[in-house]
Amino acid sequence: MAAQWQVTAQERTARAAHRLLARGAGDAQEVAEALVALHATDPATVFLSVGARLAAPERAVQAVEEALYGPGAPLARMLAMRRTMFVVTRAFAPDVYAAAGRPIAANERKKLLAFLAEGGGWDEKWLAAAEDAVTAALTGGGELSGAQLSRLVPQLREQVVVARGKPYEATQNVASRVIRTMAAENRIERRRPAGTWTSSQFRWAPAQPLEDRPAEAARAAVVRAWLGAYGPGTEADLKWWTGWPLTAVRKALAALGAEAVRLTTGAGDATGYVLPGDAAATEPPTPAAALLPALDPAPMGWQDRDWYLPREHRDALFDRTGNVGPTVWWGGEVIGGWGQQADGTVVWRQLSDRGAAAAKAVDTAAAELTARLGGVRVTPRFRTPLERELASA
């Protein structure tokens, strides 16, 4: 039996630099394919993640809007891994939905029915009528905001009481819950926002149908894509990233014939996996600076982060629930974080010293990002200690 390939931290940072951080993509679709899926919980993340990898980053807003909302749009938003919002290519969407989106949609419907029954006494028949009315409104009215849908569909204006009789009793509208569940089931989809590119107030339209895929084959396709971009990774990394049970992760790895390797990047060795034939050394990258936004796919790609981010810096860059803030990268590792001051200037703080050349390159990248944002302030949805500190300086 051949010995397992020993993968060092240097090898993993080289792979990250080449596969996840490289700047030179021609369009937003190319970036989404390279990263597997773009985090889209915070709308600004998509634009900043794409801009950090485009050959012409000044075209980021136009490139993303064309890819999401233009004729034949090749990208779509969907609720998927870990019940997180992602932007994926429409070609990849059927696999993502079958592997991760469909079970989440089923759970969303179950929770919605319980919410409606408890708060308003409504059942599946009432919900079906409301959903039919939403579909009819969108079919006849094109792209509509949530507020416009509520004016056209009376059921969406209903309210329910939650936690009745308790100190934290509250009244909630049903509109957002109904619309979100329909979107999770790929019956409707988010379209161009009502505001700017940083807005989360989306318009809605009928969704494009997805080709049905068997769940196991779809999970294997998702793991294949993840290993191609983020591998090597452990079973624990994949379980965390996908949100699947460990059994499903192991079945997908076995279906692919994933190759086991030895990771020598932490306190002790661990077993990782790469695609068949991918157990080979990577050419050391030419170090380059990258300023990535909060929730960028790269820092959110693994559960184990010690090999690219020293543990002592993690509290500054992540919030209490595990959401990453804006990060500064050099040669495939995180060396700091960034934020925006009141006037829109991008500032950063070094957490790991990689020399004068690295610091100068980051200064240049920060100035370029300041110019590209043109005074637009991007406040992450999930704020982290370092980002807050830099923003208030």
From TrEMBL:
Cite the GO molecular-function annotations of the record.
Answer: DNA binding
Alphabetic keyword roster: DNA-binding
Reading the lineage from the top rank, the first entry is Bacteria
Extract the InterPro entries matched here.
AlkZ-like
Q: Quote the Pfam families the UniProt record gives.
A: AlkZ-like
Query: What name does the UniProt record give this protein?
Result: Winged helix DNA-binding domain-containing protein
Please tell me the species this chain comes from: Actinacidiphila rubida
